[in-house]
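Researcher: Before we compare anything, I want clean individual predictions. No alignment, no superposition, just each chain on its own. First chain goes here; please echo the sequence and then give the structure tokens.
Model: Echoing the first chain and its structure:
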Amino acid sequence: MAKKHTEEEKSFDFTQNLDIQETINRSEVFLEKYKNIIYGVLGGIILLAAGIYYVNGIYLPNKQAEALNMMYVAERYFEADSLDLAINGDGNFPGFEEIADDYSWTKAGNLAHYYLGIAYLKKGEFETAIDHLGDFNGDDVILSSIALGAMGDAYLELDNKDKALSYYKKAADNKANTLTTPIYLLRAGELAEEMGETKDALAFYERIKADYKASTEGQNIDKYIARVSEN
């Protein structure tokens, strides 16, 4: 019986070996038939990985450094309220418009949109300001909130009060903080009050009193609440 069992095992092993060999043969035929496609795909993956590394690891950091080196002059003009020079450059150094266009994939190019939005807002070119502020995508708590609030200011200047109120709300709720949130809550409250939306105005004022009493806006908020409550 032991001998017979051994022969059965040998027979089973032989059949299994045939199956394995057949699988190997099929794989070799498949690889031979499609090797050009497979090598092409692998080559494409390698090139893609190399491209991603080059763009993120070398190209963009170099462009970012280059943009920052140029941008400081435009920032100085902006701080001095020389808005045209800040926007268009002085002939030797580029302005924010050129930086936003030529370095659009960099953080500096993104920040240039913020400066452009505020600059055009100060110049009274409100639609252009809205365009650039809308293109700005900031992670910074303060700048991102100011950008939204500035869009509210621009819409208000264009007499679009609904849009203005909407952006003041967005600015107030954007990463709430003790610096910008009470400012835009107050602006939202004052605009809602002007629009006759006294319940909404009261809600904005009460939020300042509850959460931002120590702020500049919070110190005088009781008179706003009293005024709205009378109506």
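Researcher: Okay. Second chain, same rules.
Model: Second chain and its structure:
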Amino acid sequence: MGTAMQWDERIGRRLKLRDLHIFMTVAQQGSMGRAAKHLVVSQPVVSKAISDLGRTLKVRLVDRTMKGVEPTVYGTALLRRGTIVFDELGHSVKEIEFLTDPTAGEVRITSLESLNSAFFPAVIDRLSRKFPRLTFHVLSIPGHTTQHLEVLHERSVDLAVTYLRPPFEHDDLAAEFLCSDSMTVVAAPDSKWARRRKIELAELVDEPWCLPVKDTFSALLIGRAFRERGLVPPRNFVTTDSSHLRRALMATGRVLGFLTRTALRLSGTHSVLRPVRVDLDIPLGSVGIVSLKNRTLNPAAELFIEYARELAKQLAAA
């Protein structure tokens, strides 16, 4: 009963979302003046909102500094939880919009650059054909780092599409393993290597290659695969984190490289690259989807996951 009364008297009736929004803007801008300009209100309005919010919670929320203002320990706690409040409210609005018009919605995703040329566009293509008014916002992360997972904590995206390997040990993240994938050597159809029926890996070492940037997840796996076969990893003809540049160079017929099995399957006869018949298949793990635990996903994001599962089943069957 006491807790209910405290909520009703201190929070339910007195805490205003507008004041919370102003406080979060002040914390982001680092200055009441800049916050006022950003919100297109006067500075006294901003000061009053911060003061009212502090009185409601009975704590000091910001400290003045030489550069402006910064949140106190209490302000930091409110900021952290306030981000969740506005995130959930935003999802509620999107869910209501989706329920009134199931063909519309928005999905915000971060993905590895290496998945953007095959699996990811295949899911978007299938989903957008049935729901043409869906919109997608994609943040592409090169290489294989944890950066795309860290973005989830900022709540600026709903999902991360990435490669996963068990065990996935993150207390606040949930992962779904969809389908396994691997890299194989590829060349242009008119390359002499694409026409050969059987090739020893040692024959390819001195050829020009276009490989992923050194120290990325893929590059480390490629180097290990060559060394395990008693070979020195090939010299990188061009060093780039651009998968588009690598593909363009491989398409000339002079350069060898790697492509995922998923990309080859999905491109089918339309692919400008062909697998080279050499005994080398490098496992990448599983294509997977990661999201924040205990975070409600909007219906459009749920639809994306559903279609990704269906595509993964088809790839696994193939």
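Researcher: What stands out in the second chain?
Model: The chain has twelve helices and eleven strands. Additionally, Residues 73-100 form the longest helix (28 residues).
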